[in-house]
Write a structure and sequence with these properties.
9 strands; Rossmann fold; 236 residues; single chain; 7 helices; alpha/beta
Length: 236
């Protein structure tokens, strides 16, 4: 997954992940969480000829694809993109007092595509967890709900990426102690190095893999995202 997708990821991972697993992609605004997740998923699917489902709650699918193309990231024919526009339209006509269970809706979508594509459906991305919570009226007992949601993803033998906004230095959780429930956490951020702001990637947690925990510089080239190598602290 990691070692045959984004160029330079082999500098971060000595051994790769295996399915099923759930991984948080975290970071502050502007750290390219969405771009990283989409690039990783798209390039992996291109190399193995499998199927993936990308759910974006932050923007429309058209806007998302436009942004990805502007970064030089190709659109994968092996990926279904859902922006939940249809769900929002349905939600407008729900009778007062009723509420839409968005987590259950995602689960139904995954079951549908699993039946359609079988074992070829291997990758899922949710962008983002914060947006999902903002759509939900009842956010009580979210640790329990997310435990079973992540279990459902694993039961379907998926590699799942969950995008989550997070400030530098903050804990990797929102409402459901997500950082404790997932198998891996990738932090994307901005660091000042030699007087310049540098985007970086750092693996904070990844079960059953050998990986670096250093910050690795990331940039956008003509063909999309590239991992350059470790950032060495200059004390600036």
């Amino acid at each position: 997954m990691f070692k045959n997708s984004i160029p330079g990821m082999e500098k971060v991972f000595k051994t790769d992940i295996t399915s099923p697993c759930v991984i948080l992609i975290t970071g502050p605004p502007g750290s390219m969480k969405t771009s990283f997740g989409y690039t990783l998923m798209s390039k992996y699917l291109e190399s193995v000829n499998q199927f993936g489902l990308y759910c974006t709650l932050e923007e429309t699918s058209q806007s998302h694809l436009k942004n990805m193309k502007s970064l030089g990231i190709k659109v994968s024919p092996h990926m279904q993109i859902s922006d939940f526009t249809d769900l929002r339209e349905v939600d407008k006509v729900v009778e007062e007092g009723d509420e839409t269970d968005y987590i259950a809706f995602i689960e139904k979508m995954i079951v549908y595509f699993k039946k359609k594509y079988g074992d070829k459906f291997t990758v899922f991305t949710l962008d983002s967890l914060g947006a999902l919570y903002s759509l939900m009226e009842d956010v009580h007992k979210m640790r329990k709900r997310m435990f079973y949601f992540f279990k459902m993803l694993r039961d379907n033998n998926l590699t799942a990426f969950i995008v989550m906004e997070r400030s530098i230095g903050a804990e990797s959780q929102l409402l459901g102690n997500e950082g404790f429930l997932v198998d891996g956490i990738i932090m994307l951020g901005l660091d000042r190095n030699r007087g310049k702001l540098v985007r970086y990637l750092q693996v904070e947690k990844m079960r059953a893999t050998q990986h670096s925990m250093e910050k690795h510089a990331v940039e956008v080239g003509k063909d999309g995202i590239v991992v350059l190598g470790p950032i060495f602290d200059t004390g600036e």
